[in-house]
Amino acid sequence: MNLLIISASQRTESQSAKVADYLANSSSQFSKTSHIELCKQRLPLWDGDDSSKQNDNSDWLAINTQLQTMDALILITPEWGGTASPLLKNLLMMSEAADIGHKPVLLVSVVNGISGAYPIAELRMNAFSNNKLVAIPDHLIIRNVEEILNTANENNLQHDNAITRRDKRIRHRIGYSLHTLLHYGQAMKSLRETLQVSTYNNEHLYQYGM
């Protein structure tokens, strides 16, 4: 099972990237884990024309190769002004169902406060209609993010006074979410194989959602 983590903050050295690193270090049950930090990639603002994805300075082809070979995906977005990252929404509009359709995604919202629900709701509502990613029922909201996930040594959690009770709870919840995502990835890999050989008459007419 190949796991791809995409952190979508527009800032370098972001809390979203910190969370991504923690998730990557906690995902040993996957055979391979990769992390893409979108702010460090060169992606054009997509204009609806496929040729615009592949201009001379674009990293799209390299990113899409990783999207094609993944079995499961984690999308991490900061909450700014109650919305998901524009970098992430641009990437999702560029992505095609032929490459990422029917693959499971775990949504993660990161906020330095107590909100964080709006990006999850926004992505569930309108981010997957055409690319046909499947958001699993579980999601993560990492609130007050600057205060947690700052110590990586899991073996010392019971004895480290710097790890608060809330920090321990979110780490345990992350473990559960990764466990769930792994099993969705295994089940949906079998589903994709079935759909490839069991096609519907003229299904090409329905490449876009309603």
Strand order of the largest sheet: 2-1-3-4-5
How many independent structural domains?
1
Please report the first level of CATH classification, the CATH class. Answer: Alpha Beta
Write down the secondary-structure element order: EHEHEHHEHEH
Q: What do the pLDDT scores average to?
A: 93
Low-pLDDT parts are none
Query: In this structure, how is the largest beta sheet organized?
Result: 5 strands, parallel
Give the helix tally.
6
SSE-based structural type: alpha/beta
Beta-strand segment tally: 5
**Dominant shape:** globular
Q: What is the helix content?
A: 25-40%
Give an account of the 3D structure.
The protein is built from six helices and five strands, in the order E-H-E-H-E-H-H-E-H-E-H. The protein has 210 residues and is an alpha/beta fold. It has one domain (2-200): Flavodoxin domain (Rossmann fold, 3-Layer(aba) Sandwich), CATH 3.40.50.360. A five-stranded parallel beta sheet has the order 2-1-3-4-5, with helices on both faces. Helix 5 links the parallel strand 4 and strand 5. The radius of gyration is 17 Å and the shape is globular. It starts with a strand and ends in a 13-residue tail after the last helix. The mean pLDDT is 93. It holds the Pfam family FMN_red. This is NAD(P)H-dependent oxidoreductase.
